[in-house]
């Protein structure tokens, strides 16, 4: 989806439905679309803040203004990428509000600078496990474990209205990057299948427009990932290749600035295919086993 024309509603508090408001952070980019969307769930008395976003003074000021005199029942993070969770700590300190949501991410990898995209300072007061809920006046949020984009990713279901806050697991503007070693394509596909089996009315992603036909989009995303898998296998049938050779062939017409991220998802597909015995590798080169 192309970037929409400016001005974007950065810093504005937009009412999406009676229990849901949205505040857009000023961190738009080719990787975040118009920016991270922070959601306020509740009314003027008590709210949950979903994905507080980056620790930027202007964004925190916009959140404070939107929250007003309401009590913050919980600050909830879908995952701990740096465009999602860093504002949790200063907002918690200013409002004496608990951070409740995904678990901290501990990377079990010695790859250089593997933790650069992650907020390693994230410290929740309580971790919500799959199926656990928190509530306020007239609203209930239930955690739904959706690993894949990251191992600690959660979605949050607003039970009263069948709205699902999908973080980066499902977005309305782009496919999701699955970047090893933490991102896992098999987990991601299983999480998509889990969402496809639900009856949510609408998705509110952290980036991009609301998704008003959720199951149709998820079905298309599953098909898209399977198509990428078949594409990789066709290319490898022509001979061994490394990821740097696969990406230009697979992502023709895609902004080259996004190729490194695309390469991460290709790598996640290859690792998944390797586990299933469909491909093999020697060094950086991947092949079809004979």
TrEMBL record:
Cited SUPFAM superfamilies: Metallo-hydrolase/oxidoreductase
Where is coiled-coil annotated?
A: none
Entry-linked CDD domains: metallo-hydrolase-like_MBL-fold
InterPro entries hit by this protein? LACTB2_WH, Metallo-B-lactamas, RibonucZ/Hydroxyglut_hydro, Sec-metab_biosynth-thioest, WH-like_DNA-bd_sf
Domain Metallo-beta-lactamase: from-to ranges: 35-207
What Pfam families does the database record attribute to this sequence? Lactamase_B (PF00753), WHD_BLACT (PF17778)
Q: Which residues form the signal peptide?
A: none
The cross-references to SMART domains, in alphabetical order and at most eight, read:
Lactamase_B
Give the domain of life: Bacteria
This chain's protein is named MBL fold metallo-hydrolase
**Organism phylogeny:** Bacteria, Pseudomonadati, Pseudomonadota, Alphaproteobacteria, Sphingomonadales
């Amino acid at each position: 989806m192309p970037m929409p024309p400016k001005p974007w509603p950065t810093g504005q508090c937009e009412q999406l439905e009676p229990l849901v408001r949205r505040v857009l952070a000023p961190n738009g980019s080719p990787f975040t679309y118009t920016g991270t969307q922070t959601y306020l769930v509740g009314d003027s008395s008590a709210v949950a803040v979903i994905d507080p976003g980056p620790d930027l003074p202007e964004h925190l000021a916009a959140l404070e203004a939107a929250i007003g005199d309401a009590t913050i029942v919980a600050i909830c993070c879908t995952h701990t990428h740096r465009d999602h969770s860093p504002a949790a700590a200063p907002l918690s300190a200013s409002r004496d509000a608990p951070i409740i949501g995904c678990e901290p991410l501990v990377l079990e990898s010695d790859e250089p600078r593997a933790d650069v995209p992650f907020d390693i300072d994230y410290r929740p007061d309580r971790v919500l496990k799959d199926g656990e809920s928190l509530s306020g006046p007239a609203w209930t949020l239930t955690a739904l474990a959706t690993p894949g984009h990251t191992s600690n990713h959660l979605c949050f279901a607003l039970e009263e209205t069948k709205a699902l806050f999908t973080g980066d697991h499902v977005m309305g503007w782009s496919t999701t990057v699955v970047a090893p070693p933490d991102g896992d394509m098999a987990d991601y596909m299983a999480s998509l299948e889990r969402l496809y089996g639900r009856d949510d009315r609408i998705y509110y992603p952290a980036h991009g427009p609301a998704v008003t036909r959720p199951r149709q989009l998820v079905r298309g995303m599953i098909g898209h990932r399977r198509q990428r898998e078949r594409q990789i296998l066709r290319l490898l049938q022509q001979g061994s290749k490394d990821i740097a050779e696969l990406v230009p062939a697979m992502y023709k017409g895609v902004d080259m600035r996004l190729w490194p991220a695309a390469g991460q998802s290709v790598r996640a597909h290859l690792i998944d295919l390797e586990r299933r015995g469909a491909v093999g590798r020697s060094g950086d080169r991947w092949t079809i086993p004979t």
